[in-house]
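User: Please predict the structure of the protein below. I'd like the answer in structure-token form so I can feed it into my own downstream comparison script.

Assistant: Understood. Taking the following sequence of 170 residues as input:
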Amino acid sequence: MEQIFSNFGVKPILLTAQIVNFLILFLILKKLLYKPLLKLLDERKIKIEQNLQNEEKIKQQLKKVEHESSLKIADAKLKAQKIIETASHEANEIIAKAHQQAQYDVDLIIKKGKENLLQEQEKVKQIMHKDYANLVILGIETITSEVLNLNDHKKIIETRLKELNNQNLS
């Protein structure tokens, strides 16, 4: 074996010293660097796993919130549609009541106008009857002033007024 070492130019004492140095360095690195590095990597792995679990929980919560919000939005849309329909129906009822009230007011005004017109016509008729009676009396007086007495005048006037009333009533 020494011959092999000498052919390759390896000195056994130096090789043994290098092996001992390597083992010492290996033990020091294992103790001081490798174990803390493995511990740090394990901690990092645990944090990553926890973050992945948290991410999955957050995704589930987000889906749940999105679903709930879409349900609330749909419900709000239905409520808004019902409110719009109710308001439209109430507006139509108010318009219909206003039209009815307006028609009632118009009918009332027309009725009062007709009543006033009939009253005025009746007043005019009464005035005309009085005027006509006065004219008749005046005419008769001038014609018959010398022939008839007061009782005859009254009878003629009453007869003529009855005739006029019968004509106006028919």
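That's the full token string. The chain is about 95% helix and 0% strand.
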